[in-house]
Amino acid sequence: MPWFTIDDKWHSHPKVIGLSLAAAGLWAKAGSWCNDQLTDGRISLAAVKVLGGNTKLAAELVEANLWHVVEGGWQFHDWLDKQQSRETVLSKRKADAERKRKGNETRKGIREESERSPPILQLESSRPSPSPSPIPIKNSEKESARATPRVDHWSANENEHSLRVEFIRRYEAAVQNPPMAGPVTKMSAALAGWVESTAAIRGMLQSAVITQLFDGFFASDSARAKKFPPAFLATNPAEYFEPSKPEVAGPTLQQQIAMADAEVRQLMAAYEKGERDSRVSPAALEALMDQAKLAAAKLGELKKSVAA
Q1: CA 181 to chain centre
Q2: What's the average pLDDT block by block, 10 residues per block, for the chain (308 residues)?
Q3: Residue 67 β-bridge partners
């Protein structure tokens, strides 16, 4: 919907100041009509009469050089200096229609993918529940467990990054100074595989293994006496790891699926609401759709885990 634009100084313009109120009103109504009909500022006598005007008022506008006489009616003076052309408006409408078409196709694809995926498991409670006591795993099963961690699915880089960040945070809190970067990097690289295999064998989150490991290390008197050297931890991590401690697990796989599904629905609802709001820019709508696609991809991966 194009807007008929009037300058905030129009009321005191030399061409306008001497107009009758009726002529000024006709000019404004005619401008709205031209934008509605996309006539590029041209208006016929019939339209002037429908708007409550007449040839006398039109002549007043011509005399003020606000209109010009043309065949079949009148033409606004310098219409395209202030208003959008018919071609521009139609081009924007076409682009908007194409954007909405693509958005509809994307939404349809997301819904179809969701329907093809395994159904979301119903949760008895929205609150994360503690994981059950770890079930002992036979030696013959350990290799399979190491290859497929239960929940996190962290990469080696993510594992090392988490080890570095958490160690630095704990070290600075305990020693009041940052540790040297080199030894911390070596420690995290050395412990990444140990964290992954320990999490798989004990049925724990890798993040929980890291937390429990550092809890034991930074509570150790011997480590404190040596000012918590990273190499000291990397030498024998099992010494500081205490599996008997109760753990607070993160969201279960079913809860992660429910949360991801809710996120997709919220993003799509925000997108559809934005489409109906003329104040929301196309760029903002595209950003919402991109977020929805990422959330839908995450949801699909989680559902594949259930199917597996």
Answers
A1: 34
A2: 80 88 95 93 94 94 95 93 90 88 78 55 42 44 42 65 88 86 87 81 83 87 83 82 57 83 84 80 80 84 76
A3: 76
User: Which single residue is written with the structure tokens 């993918």?
Assistant: 113
Token pair 């208003």 in the structure block, residue: 83
Taking the CA atoms of residue 239, residue 244, residue 246 and residue 248 in that order, the dihedral angle to the nearest 10 degrees is 50
* Token pair 């960040």: residue: 165
* Residue at token pair 């290390």: 217
**Pairing state between β 42-44 and 67-70:** unpaired
What does the DSSP assignment read for 117-182?
SPPPPPPS-SS--PPPPPPP--HHHHHHHHHS-SS----HHHHHHHHHHHHHHHHHHHHSSPPPHH
Please say whether the structural domain 10-82 has been given the CATH code 1.10.10: yes
Q: What is the DSSP string of 208-237?
A: HHHHHHHHHHHT-HHHHHTT--HHHHHH-G
Every domain range in the chain assigned CATH 1.10.10: 10-82
Complete edge-to-edge strand list for the sheet that includes strand 73-76: 42-44, 73-76, 67-70
Query: Structure tokens of 21?
Result: 């109120």
Residue 208 CB neighbour total at 10 angstroms? 21
Give residue for tokens 């009616």: 73
Task: Give pLDDT, residue 67.
Answer: 95
Answer whether 85's CB lies under 8 Å from 69's CB.
no
